[in-house]
Amino acid sequence: MINDMERRRMYQLQQQAPIPHKVVCIREKHNRPPFYGKEFHGMISREQTDIYLNDREGAYLVRESQRAPGTFTLCMRFGGVTKNFKLYYDGQHFVGEKRFYSIHDLVADGLIALYLEMKAGDYIAMMCNESNYELSPYMTLNSRRRKRNRPDPASPDFYERPPGDVVTKTEEILAAAFERNSINVQNYEKTHVFKVHNFKGLHWCDFCGNFMWGLIAQGVKCEDCGFGAHKKCSENVPNDCCPDLKHVTRVYGTDLTTLVKAHNTVRPFVVDMCIKQIEHRGLGAEGLYRVSGFNDDIEALRLTIDKDGEDSDISRDAYEDINVIAGVLKLYFRLLPIPLITFDAYPLFLAAIRKPSQEEKLPFLKEAIMTLPPAHYQTLKYLMAHLYRVAERSKENLMPTHNLSTVFCPTLMRSPDLGTPDLSVWKYESAAIEMLITHQKILFD
């Protein structure tokens, strides 16, 4: 088991690492590349390099290769020997993955890495595997957050309703399900979105608790929840990302599961808001979802929702045209990076709808639905119940299930194949959406 003293040792070792000493070339080098300074010594031999470095720990210089003119080598003294690295420049200097604006910083970071590897190589190799994730600071914090955000089992959503607000029939149906079995959104499985990160100041790994050494790119950080870890440690982190609103700054174009976990709602709040408005005042509108709203209004409302979130005003006073509300709802689904019917589930839906009889299609379609991530499942269930109610008013709005499936098919289902779209598949996609609407009570029971 790793103790606190061992964790602190990594920071102490970084402080003890050799510091860079530039070996200045006293002769003018007319062929010196503009991105090198006086550490550039031109085309010199390895023997000359050793002489210039003078057996001083941390001493470094840059030379041009004698065997391959036009290529450059970073030479630095460490552990009593000269280390040679091929040196590259593309606007920044690099010998590996990390990139630096100065040779000095590159050498300083390299000396730290070499020193820690020499002094604590065995410990570094085992620290990720020996760490207990259940006892990590991140896990402790998230456990508290999950308890704090546990939903009210009698509520179909997680925001307060204004006095006198309309509860739609769809929401009444779903509320009964919540009373029987509350849904804790924070338990939805979600992968972390790790990106290499430059941590400012001193930082310790949220997984193993060890110091994250180096000057830049010390590790990775999740873009959605802020989890910071060594790159190696991040490979052992489970899919339990709990997005934080300070990291999730927009609604449109954000992964669906990320959004619902960040806002602690079973479905994306924008879906609930729009459907509530449409069911309250627009179910009878002719051509609902087929007739487009004014593009400028749709774009303005999208920007408002991205900025104001659940406080956005989408009432009749703000947007009298219900087609604008329908438009921003369709736009939300269209901009999802992973469609509502996910890429993984897509072939299962097509396989189900291609079965010869309805008796065979329904059970296979239900199996396909059950493969969806929980947030996608809950959203699809809610949307299909809503579209069923739209179709019930088709004598007024002229939007039966076939018309609705035609409109929503390209928005909800996208082939994972990035090649030329197969137009022959469209009829199966549309048929799948139509069956989801028509048989939503059976399929989502």
TrEMBL record:
Q: Where in the cell is it found?
A: Membrane
Please give the biological process terms from Gene Ontology that the record holds. signal transduction
Q: For this UniProt entry, what is the primary localization, expressed as one broad class?
A: membrane
Occurrences of domain Phorbol-ester/DAG-type (ranges):
191-241
Which part of the chain is the Rho-GAP domain?
A: 254-444
Q: List each copy of the SH2 domain by range.
A: 39-107
Q: Does the keyword Nucleotide-binding apply?
A: no
Keyword line = GTPase activation, Membrane, Metal-binding, SH2 domain, Zinc, Zinc-finger
Sorted alphabetically, which Pfam families does this protein's record hold?
C1_1 (PF00130), RhoGAP (PF00620), SH2 (PF00017)
* Claim: Membrane is one of the keywords in the record: yes
One MF term in the entry's GO annotations: zinc ion binding
Q: Name one GO cellular component term.
A: membrane
Its membrane topology is listed as:
Peripheral membrane protein
- The protein's superkingdom reads Eukaryota
Protein's recorded name: Beta-chimaerin
Give the species this sequence originates from.
Strigamia maritima (European centipede)
